[in-house]
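User:
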Amino acid sequence: MKSRVTIKDIAQKTGFSVTTISLVLNDKANHIPRETKLIIAKAVKEMGYRPNKMAVGLVKKQSNIIGFVLPDIRNQFFSYTAKVLEDECHKYDWNLLICNSDNNHKQELKHLKMLCDYMVDGIFLSMAANSTEKEVEESINFLEDNKIPYCLIDRDMFDIGKYKISVDHLQGAYLATEHLIKLGHKKIGCITGPLILDDARQRLAGYKQALKDNGIKIDENLIFEGDYSFEKGKIGCDNLLAKNITAIFAANDFSAMGALASIKEHNLIVPRDISIVGYDDIAFASLLEVPLTTVRQPIDAIGQKATEVINQLVNSEENIDSKIIILEPKLIVRSSTKTIS
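Assistant: Predicted structure:
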């Protein structure tokens, strides 16, 4: 395999010193003749020289790389968030390095250590589901002990992180459930996310609060704990349909899609027989056979605000004790809900 071209190779080809080559390449060669610069530029192009970013980073103490450790790249919420973060990072001349923890804390910590070794300028982190309080502390302590600017996105199970962007999930679930209540539904099932996650607990709380505020008794038998997956959404819906519900609030769109599959298998029709509301407003939500009523998370704003937080932490000369931003969700009404007959 051909070895990488170095500054020494260019110096040998052109006859100029390594110092001269370095000054030209770093645009610090004001006193060097234009002819010399042109000779060096031609050699650089002919030899295919590319700067060693790691070495440059060591000198400048910055890499222009931001890491994003996400829990499940298959989940469209996180993959779209990654796209938004990448676009926002480019505005600051940063590159985004994406790592998938597969909802596994050990893998998450491994990625954090790797990103630290690469001397990234900052890290976005969405915690692995099912992490214990001790595991969450381990990840946060690692970031803070190594003085890595970070911003948690959406997940902070035990309210430990100092810098985070999230959404008012209680309000979002409240809007979803209230929408169903206004359509006349009273027996409303709920398929939650994994209740170890703070966002899942908030969505369940919003569901319960909407029922309570509208004088509907909370029936724990109509609550099924899922894990934000299509499979658990389907199983949860199977369970709820046996209890004669007329509507379902699913705590994310993947669970709602699983519920839609279950409803179809039971030879029922949405929304004629069952109304359903999801959460996230992933791209597929509007493209389903029955376009899904759902709660939209402001992913563009999440990406923008999270990147601003990292930029502040990277460039501020003052110590920023904490930065917590909570954004507002929005109910998007489509064809999967209707007034009960």
